[in-house]
Amino acid sequence: MAIVKTWEVNTLERDISDGHVNKVIWRCKAIDDSDNTEAPASRQTGEVNFTKPSSLPSDFKAYDSLDASTCISWVKTALGTDGVAAVEAAIDAALTPATTAVGKPF
Q1: Residue 79: which of 17, 30, 24, 36 has the closest Cα?
Q2: How far, in Å, CA of 33 to CA of 1, rounded?
Q3: What is the mean pLDDT of the chain?
Q4: pLDDT of residue 97
Q5: CA–CA gap between residue 8 and residue 69 (Å, rounded)
Q6: What's the pTM value of the predicted model, to 2 decimals?
Q7: Which residues of the chain have pLDDT under 70?
């Protein structure tokens, strides 16, 4: 079983007047690529907020022309390499079988 981490956009919050995306709510989940099912306890979610600049940049993409790949690239850029690694490490930790337990045998 090989586990693949998949980043997705849950939803976007935008300014209706100009389409500027203020927030991306995202999730990263582990998928077993042998049967394409989500591994249990293997999801991380979060959100990234974006401040609207005083003027829209020349590379501004209209809301209606956005795709998931673009939005995920914004999320990963905002989280940074260490943040992305931390999210994926948390998923790995959730998938690692426990080696200790607490309790009593009686």
Answers
A1: 24
A2: 7
A3: 88
A4: 77
A5: 9
A6: 0.82
A7: 1, 34-41
Say if CB 6 and CB 20 are below 8 A apart: no
pLDDT for the residue numbered 83: 97
pLDDT at residue 40, rounded to an integer: 66
64-72 contact pairs (CB < 8 A, 24+): 64/19, 66/12, 66/21, 68/8, 68/9, 71/9, 71/12, 71/21, 71/24, 71/26, 72/7, 72/8, 72/9, 72/26
Q: How far apart are the C-alpha atoms of 68 and 80, rounded to whole Å? A: 18
**Residue 57 DSSP one-character state:** -
The tokens describing 50, both together, are 């974006």
Reported residue count of the chain is: 106
Cα 23 to chain centroid distance, Å, stands at 12
Nearest to 42 by CA among 32, 52, 34, 50: 32
Q: Which two tokens stand for residue 99?
A: 């080696």
Q: Where are the alpha helices (DSSP H) in the chain?
A: 68-95
